[in-house]
Request: fold
Amino acid sequence: MKHPVAVVDSTVLRLAGRVMLLATLLTIVLFASASPTRADDGQLLSLLKQPGHVLIMRHTLAPGIGDPDGFVLEDCRTQRNLSESGREQASELGQRLRAGGIETARVYSSRWCRCLDTASGLDLAPVIPLPALDSVFQQRHETEARTRALRDFLANLEPGEPAILVTHQVNVRALTGRSTGSGGGLVINILDPENVQVVGTF
Reply:
């Protein structure tokens, strides 16, 4: 016959263990629900299939700032270009877009080589160069005019496949008031191109 105290102690220990297990599981669930994950991509990117939404993104990793003096737009050798990591990043972003339900898209890009290479690295569609996305980093006096051209483009963008715009950090900020890291993107509502609204970060 078991000692009564031993029986009580054993029962208490089992209950305590179950309480601790439940507390641990609850903590994991709450942490997971509060932490952004790539599973959220699908919900965010589904907006791109709805009229009035586009993804505007900064080119992927390209070490340095600006471009060398005397760079030539038509000659990538004279520009700041993507690193190998930047090329891999572009490919990974394309995979994330496809996993999020974006199989094909209209892909527009700045004419700078690092943007064209990012856009082509997504591997979603032939890239369409768009001067309105060209960098204003070393041409700050053109910021207002170029942003105006981009707003006009967005105002006239026909409904259709999801649209992805690849540009530069300064251009993203000029349009949205928000900055992004290399390869970062913003899903924006463009129903009012004069006052675009950021609805999510990719």
